[in-house]
Write a structure and sequence with these properties.
Layout lengths: L3 H10 L11 E3 L5 H14 L7 E5 L7 H4 L6 H6 L13 H13 L2 H7 E5 L4 E4 L2 E3 L5 H18 L9 E4 L3 H13 L5 E4 L2 H7 L4 H12 L1
Parallel strand pairs: 2-3, 2-6, 6-7
Antiparallel strand pairs: 1-4, 4-5
Helix pairs in contact: 1-2, 5-9, 5-10
Length: about 220
């Protein structure tokens, strides 16, 4: 049986996304050799095993985190300062990444966190329209077009040794409702746990960040 690193690297570098409606374009950073190199370094460092892990699924990658690095909820600054992974990207950060890496520190650090969890996305590729991020659920025609890809992607990840007793859903409104609906159809997980989206916390409730981190820790433990 292949390791998490081997299977995830193949997963993230072999997408064949179809056409999108309404002038929406795919955000597919793993097409670029420099991104593939970073993704491989990250996976080889933290996922070179066959251990059981629990999934957390965000919405879809955005332009300034995974849309640059190819690593979910990870901007170039975290690659350098936390993970010590070299890269050619401009040293920028991103609000969601800052929250997630504060959470990882509170959990016990990258080795402890990534050793027991994998953060993915309901849709593993992102979307751009008019130079701005768009989420898979923002446009009904887009959602209809990408739903088969979403289902196939989740089922591919579930071929890994995943703890199916619970899945953390990052985004407790539309992302949670949609993932819950899919889970009712396919029975992937025993339960879906809604978790506040890091961008919401950092933009609107930053003073309460520690309380939101505690909510995540309760799920993770």
């Amino acid at each position: 049986m292949k390791t998490w690193a081997q299977q995830l690297y193949h997963f993230y570098t072999h997408f064949t996304p179809g056409e999108l409606p309404n002038h929406v374009a795919w955000l597919f950073p793993q097409r670029q050799p420099e991104v593939r190199k970073v993704v491989k370094a990250f996976l080889d460092k933290y996922y070179n095993d066959r251990n059981e892990r629990r999934l957390l699924l965000g919405i879809n990658p955005g332009r300034f985190g995974a849309g640059v690095t190819g690593v979910n909820f990870t901007a170039p600054k975290q690659l350098t300062e936390v993970l010590s992974i070299p890269h050619p990207f401009k040293s920028q950060s991103e609000l969601s990444a800052e929250f997630i890496y504060d959470l990882i520190a509170a959990y016990g650090g990258p080795e402890a966190f990534f050793g027991r969890h994998f953060i993915g996305s309901v849709c593993p590729l992102g979307f751009v329209k008019g130079g701005k991020n768009i989420n898979y659920y923002d446009d009904p025609a887009l959602l209809a077009a990408v739903e088969p890809f979403i289902i196939e992607s989740i089922e591919t990840q579930l071929r890994l040794p995943v703890d199916r007793s619970a899945c953390g859903c990052i985004g407790e409104d539309k992302n949670f409702k949609y993932l819950s609906k899919l889970n009712e159809r396919f029975g992937w997980f025993d339960r879906i746990a809604p978790l506040p989206h890091p961008r919401f916390v950092m933009q609107y409730r930053r003073r309460e960040k520690e309380q939101f981190i505690d909510r995540y820790l309760q799920f993770l433990h």
